Amino acid sequence: MEDWNEKCAVVGIYSVHNASILSYYSLFSMQHRGQEASGISTSNGKKIFTYKKNGLVSDVFNKNILSKLEGNSSIGHNRYSTAGEDSINDCQPIFAKYALGEIAIVHNGNLTNTKKLRQSLIQEGAIFQSHLDTENLIHLIAKSNKNNLENRIIDGLNQIKGAYAFVFLSRTKMFAVRDKHGLRPLSLGKIINPDGSFGYIVASETCAFDLINAEYIRDIEPGEMIVFEGLNSKQPTLKSIKIFPQNPYPCIFEYVYFARPDSKIFGKNVYQIRKQMGIQLAKEHKINANMVIPVPDSGVAAAIGYSAESGIPFELGIIRNHYVGRTFIEPTQSTRELKVRLKLNPISELIADKDIIIIDDSIVRGTTSKQIIKILRQAGVKKIHLFISSPPTISPCFYGVDTPDKSELICANHSLEEVRDFIGADSLEFLSLEGLKKSIQSDLKEKFCQACFDGKYIDELEG
Ligand code: SF4
User: Fold this and answer.
1) From 3.60.20.10, 3.30.1490.20, 3.30.499.10, 1.20.1050.10, which CATH number describes the 5-248 domain?
2) pLDDT tens, 242-255?
């Protein structure tokens, strides 16, 4: 999917041996959520150490750097940055010293009352080093008159609005919190140390747990803060504080595109939901064709589901090159086809003279779909039916996902027929919003943020 980017991944490790290395592997497994920068802070109980840099996790850290990040607790962050905000100051964790000690913080999401709040903090004398909305919270914590960090964090959270999954690290404690709508995911797990003692992990996705043998316990609830205490004891404790009454609206797009299929998001496995979306798509849009082909990788699970429901054979007719790094010189506008071909190449011997159904997860600007269809035509395909396993994206996101303006979203500005004509498919169909929700749950009672599909933002829904 082009131009629709998750902004971040966060992780926190508490009271576990080699916390920096476990954070490193966790960030590595969540690289898909942000590739611009990576950072880790650790604490040895007396001091917080931080290292962060632009680049992929494997480029930012090495054995030597990780060995200097001492201690048994750590937090980490992968960042997706928008243009003009790629300085080291905009990488996370953000570290600060304040009246009660030291603190580091990582954030996935987007705060919505940032501008006004920053202006008033500046007027009060605060000095900012980054463009990050998260830095506001550091100042709110620093200037709070509460007598401990826990209460200062709660004080700060009461003054911010928007979407967040935060993890805070002090010298001896860790704090993990989700906003009252639970827009961004954050799961809790347990790690057993080699000596039999145990510790905890929180992460944006549970694929991070699998890599380091952590056991999934549950999600942090919307509006909940968990305080981790007893660093280096045999049995560190968890304290759950309900900061805000919960009003869940988790991001439905996590299931469509962002999350890895092997993750459990909001308590449900992503692969199974994507496959169900394909099954539902086949129920809603039946057509005769020789084969079903996914746009790899994000269309694979839905294409398997479509094939299973329709009985039309599944084939891997397009092969993806997984080694296209971000360092490659970006082709200019005039060579967009090269950009797509760098990643995707069709198997012409398989698809020439055939009627095919292509399954993709979504359409944003439409330019990538257009190029995919062009290279399929060049490979000799007879008829191309592009079926999308989510509804048309018609509105931008303000809750932590980097999206184009509404004016650039092709489905927001054109009819289905105009979009089909632009991308050059013989037919074009989308999964209905109800069908998407049916794929996730059976009773349709659960609420989701689905604003990018229906334009109804949570603030309006709340009245
Ligand atoms: S607007 Fe879309 S991408 Fe943003 S949080 Fe809501 S569902 Fe997710």
Assistant:
1) 3.60.20.10
2) 999 999 999 999 99
